[in-house]
Specification:
Elements (H helix, E strand, L loop, with lengths): L3 E7 L3 H18 L2 E7 L5 H8 L4 E5 L4 H10 L6 E6 L2 E2 L5 H10 L3 E10 L14 E4 L4 E3 L2 E2 L2 E2 L10 E2 L7 E5 H6 L12 H11 L3 E12 L10 H18 L2 H24 L3 H16 L1 H13 L8 E2 L3 H6 L10
Parallel strand pairs: 1-2, 1-4, 2-3, 6-13, 7-14
Antiparallel strand pairs: 4-12, 5-13, 6-12, 7-8, 9-10, 11-13
Helix pairs in contact: 1-2, 6-7, 7-9, 7-10, 8-9
Length: 337
Amino acid sequence: MATAKIVLLNWNGEEYLGRFLPGVIAAAAEEGVGVAVVDNGSTDGSRALLADRFPDVELVALDANYGFAGGYNRGLEHIEADYFLLLNTDVETPRGWLRPILECLDACPDVGAVAPKLRSTERRDRFEYAGAAGGYIDFLGYPFCRGRILRSTERDCGQYDDARDLFWVSGAAFCCRADLFRRLGGFDADFFAHMEEIDLCWRMQLAGYRVRIEPRSVVYHVGGGTLPTDTPRKVLLNHRNNLAMLFKCAPAWQRAVVAVVRPALDLLAALTYLAQGRRDNFCAVFRAWRDFIAWHRILSAKRRAVRGSRIAEARHIYRGSILVRYLFGRRSFGRLL
């Protein structure tokens, strides 16, 4: 029988641990799954809370904040299981959410990662921004979801209740095969945070595995629990990591188009921030490009490794532009793919 471990990466999340960890433990007991917390160098009372209220939860204590990508990579080195169920600390898990996920991984050995639907904790009938009902990217690398186009989220009326393969699933509730995670080197630690799950899903597909959404499973996500929305830091990470992901993983013809079009679109994004009086975000876009260019040699080596070992190409890339579609008022996923 396959073993599974729910692993929460925590950084100064004492409030969320106290609020949501009891539900995670209850769901794990129901399914016979273990629970662990990887603490990413917290300076609040998280570790004391775990020792006092949750002494049976396995704790991996890191000496610093290595980000989402590096924190998970380092923490999972100390955790043994067949399946890793990676969960944000700000995720509410109803009873029964795990069974459909485990059934999918048990039944489909070519599924590398699977995830539940994400709904909002505040507006519980609506999809949550981070992953909704599973994600795609367009030809230029912009991510979007069934149930969320850019910043526009939809109400969940069961319109995306079909289990299906897609391009990526959210790191907020990311369930994967431990051996595959390790074989692919885990998340790209250079990313620190943001886009790392999309990058890993792309690499899984290049390795011949599928990525899947299981809508019978639903969890609720606060969102922005670690890094608030649209801060300069988040703008930098999203722009830089998205460019790095495309450089590493995209086929040459797609990369050539991106190299021509994306500089203009990112300049437009920067100028939009400037027009809004958000100079810090304006500068963050240029810092993202500065870092991306500085990474060229490292990314070239990663690209050779990723593309050189591929046995398949990624599917489920939207051949149009989600930005153009959005600007023309089409702000729901519908039957796009």
